[in-house]
Amino acid sequence: MLHRRVIQGGVLVLLFASILLALDIFNHEQTTYATGSVSATDTYTPGGADPWGTAFDSKGQVWVAMPGCDPSPQCSTSSGPGKLAVFDPSSQGWVGTYSLPSGYAQPLFLAFNKQGQLWFPMPMANALGMFDPSSQSFQEWTLPNSGVGPWDVAIDSKGLIWFTEHYSNKIGYFDSSSHNFYEIATPSSASQPYGITIDSSNNVWFTENNSSVALIGEYTAQGNLVEYKIRNGSTSGLTPHLITVDGNGNIWWSEGWVGMIGELNVSAAVAGTNTGVTEYAYKPPCSTCGSHTSGISADGSGQVWFDDSLQSAYGSFPISGNGSFSLYNTPTQNSHPHDGLNIDAQHRIWFDEEFANKLALAIQSTSSPSPTPTATSAPSPTPTGTATTVPSSGSALAQDTFARPNQSLWGKASNGTSWGGDANTAKVFSISSSAGQVSGNGNNYSAVLGPSTSNADVLFSASTSKFQNSNIGSVLRWTDGNNWYKAYIDGTNLVVQKKVKGTGTILATTPFAAKAGTSYSLRFHIVGSTLSAKVWRSSSTEPTSWMITTTDSTWQSGYCGLRMLLQSGTTATFTSFVATTA
Fold first, then answer.
1. Which of 32, 208, 379, 520 could anchor a disulfide with 385, C-beta 3.0 to 4.6 Å?
2. Going by DSSP bridges, is the β-strand pair 62-66/54-56 parallel, antiparallel, or unpaired?
3. Are residues 43 and 136 in the same domain?
4. Does this model's pTM top 0.70?
5. What's the pLDDT tens digit per position in 513-542?
6. What is the pLDDT of residues 416-453, one digit of tens each?
7. Which residues constitute the domain of residue 421?
8. Cβ contacts of 402 within 8 Å, gap of 6 or more
9. Which are the contacts of 410, defined by CB distance < 8 A and separation ≥ 6?
């Protein structure tokens, strides 16, 4: 008998990875293990923001869900319908973008059925959507119970559309033949199911994301729901996220805020216990960035792949459990790889870079050798051997995606800190359509975010409606509106300038033609007395070389931010801002 009890959705628990690393409550067999090198590239998604889930069609094309907002755990009611985008690996380009119809909400996860139809839950609309590429038509079905938040999706061999209900304590499925919904309640009262996958025997596996619950659930092909404990000790910060099945039929999942992945050996598993469960911890390369393990998928070469959104890293671990982690930087810094990691039939690793609005591709240049087990006990494992490790990169200082409800002024950034300078006092600043806007009136304005620092790197993306006697740029070592370093574009040049007690001096300039209404990304970098800058169209790849490098030692420290000169009738639109230590 199916249970249909609705509960209120809870909030995700936010704790840092270091809590669990200090506790002796997991096991790990450590061996020497070497992998081949990995090369990675990325490309901007077309006309959309916050790329999320991915799926592959029968042609090997990559489909990407683009909600256009960052659910935490919901998007603003003012967020419009999202989009679907299609990337063709053979042509290395985007071949289609489909906007969801008016009245639809935002897609997060994607799955194809055998008929080639693409299914996607829309939690903010409490609905399940379908796109048929052959007819290029959309359909939508609203769930019978309100506010349950259909989240991740998987399709079984019978064609049933399974999904988690993240705002309730249920999973469900949709019969596309009868158009009927069915729901199954979990025994735990606040499980907040998140990821879902289906094994070759049609057993449905899912994660229970609430750290106070922290279980792995299975709804068997025989219709029984059982749960498995991940650990017997503290589950603080343990938020099981995405889930996958390896080639041996064992279950792997990412563990959210604790910087770990977990495995259930199905043949050894005992329901209601953690028998058969092993957790594997990796050492985050950035000790101050926090950790959030999100996407996960197993390839056909004996590796399970995962990404860490706060570390801006992705990596692999042998499914044998014998070996060490290999970690790699994402192609774009501070890109926030998230839930979209997926592996295609050619063992290529695809993942979303949510805050960079990019799709990334990683390719192993050589196949991985079989590991030689020389197991030793390691309650707090540290990677050994010749595995590639992410080099230390800049620690995050400040970040804003501007994905929040329309409002006057810029308020708090997406990282929870408030904008300074003029951003929360001058009425020309506003948030509109998930972008930071500044409406010019012939004046200069500053917007700064994060702590004062010395060596730093700022990256932002923005456009302006006009360039006549106007410019947009970023600042480093900003003290106030009269003292700073600035890199900006004015439609004709890229310029690095300093201002001291209100007097401006051009330090360097190079030609760069920019068009009004086009988004550009500008990176400004300072280490010691060396200032570097480069700019490019946001739809293109970041240049490998600096366009300007100059020196000046006037300012030793200050704030990171943005600065613009905008004439009356000119509007600047900012879509992303990231500042890190350099």
1. 32
2. antiparallel
3. yes
4. no
5. 999 999 999 999 999 999 999 999 988 888
6. 889 999 999 999 999 998 899 999 999 999 999 999 99
7. 396-581
8. 410, 414, 431, 434, 435, 436, 574, 575, 576, 577
9. 400, 402, 419, 423, 424, 429, 430, 431, 436, 447
